[in-house]
Design a protein that fits this description.
The protein is mainly alpha-helical. The chain has a single domain, classed as Four Helix Bundle (Hemerythrin (Met), subunit A), CATH 1.20.120. The chain has a two-stranded antiparallel sheet with strand order 1-2. A hairpin with a 5-residue loop joins strand 1 and strand 2. Helix 1 runs parallel beside helix 5 and helix 3 runs antiparallel to helix 5. The chain is globular and about 45 Å long. It starts with a helix and ends with a helix. Belongs to the DinB family. One of its GO terms (molecular function) is metal ion binding. Keywords: Metal-binding. InterPro entries: DinB, DinB/YfiT-like.
Length: 193
């Protein structure tokens, strides 16, 4: 069955939310000390990395939503980074990440292939102009990149890193069924069959 590219981007938004949900079940088992313990990665701790994923999601999802509504770009797009770590508690990070994940899914639900080349503007010091397709592709890559770092850092704790590659294959639906039930999703909701 042929699926439009816009549907694939929607499945990526669902995959992102699912991977964050699965990873959050692991990071919420960490003690506050383990959450902030120095680790070898781009950011110095699991908490710092999770906050970075979150603030970058706020940054990009805000820009996408503004373009969709026909609003001007955020006049101070750097406001999302005023605090490097806006949340210190693992459950608060989980809650806020789930919120922005739902916003990203809602955004992708309305997209059609004909709209993928619409330009999104981010009013950086040097303004950024990218198509919806390029900006979403970048956002998904950014999330995967840093989520992989969290996954790796979990290996240095007593909490086993969860499997994060069981989303797309039809024959692995049983491996994600518990997570889907927790999220209130079905295979039909995401795949359309």
């Amino acid at each position: 069955m042929n699926q439009p590219l816009s549907h694939h981007l929607l499945t990526m938004a669902y995959q992102n939310a699912w991977a964050n949900h699965r990873l959050a079940k692991a990071w919420c088992q960490l003690s506050p000390i383990d959450l902030v313990a120095p680790r070898v990665s781009f950011f110095p701790s699991i908490r710092a990395t999770l906050n970075h994923i979150l603030t970058c999601d706020w940054f990009y999802v805000d820009a996408l939503e503004r373009e969709l509504r026909g609003d001007e770009p955020h006049p101070d797009c750097y406001v999302f980074f005023k605090d490097d770590e806006p949340f210190s508690d693992a459950s608060a990070i989980r809650h806020e990440q789930a919120q922005v994940d739902r916003r990203l899914i809602a955004y992708c639900e309305q997209m059609r292939d004909a709209d993928l080349l619409r330009v999104v503007t981010i009013a950086r010091d040097t303004p950024q102009y990218d198509s919806r397709l390029r900006l979403l592709s970048h956002l998904f890559e950014h999330q995967i990149h840093h989520r992989g770092q969290v996954h790796s850092m979990l290996s240095g704790t007593s909490v086993k890193p969860p499997q994060l590659d069981e989303f797309f294959c039809e024959g692995e639906s049983h491996l994600r069924s518990q997570d889907f039930a927790e999220l209130g999703w079905t295979e039909a909701l995401i795949w359309g069959h």
